[in-house]
Design goal:
173 residues; alpha+beta; four-stranded mixed beta sheet; 4 strands; globular; disordered N terminus; binds zinc ion
Length: 173
Amino acid sequence: MKGEPVDYPIPSSTATTARMKGNRSQDTLPEMRLRRELHSRGLRYRTHVRILPGSRRRADIVFTRVQLAVFVDGCFWHGCPAHWTVARSNREYWQAKVDKNRQRDLDTDQQLIGAGWLSLRIWEHEPTGLAADLVQMAYEDRLYGPAGLSERPGDEPWTAADNALQTGRLGGA
Ligand SMILES: [Zn+2]
């Protein structure tokens, strides 16, 4: 989705610092749009749920029954390859922050997989319809089994390894 027009400001300088300090990264506009679209498709979910025992981390959109966790990741905080740019003078500071966030994302994903969940990460810059398609496909895969499963030798059940294949970030470079 590189070069797609976006309708929200992309932080590019220290002027954004003040705004970022109060950023709770919940109920962002892209997330609200996605939720509305999913709801209109008849999908029902919970929001901002703590999934992992003993962890304060929350998934943005959660389908409990099929153990599907959806994260709508902000381009700035999570280091979207298409949009993440900062002034050179502050680069080190923000890079360290973003690196830390990405490490935490990865750790969250791994913990979710270990607990039998599928973690689906969507960049906030993704068009709502496409994002909803991806979530819906993942949901239906979890509910009915992934397409092509029956062709696999032995009809193995959906495994953590399958999950691992599907936790790559969507969109970006
Ligand atoms: Zn982006």
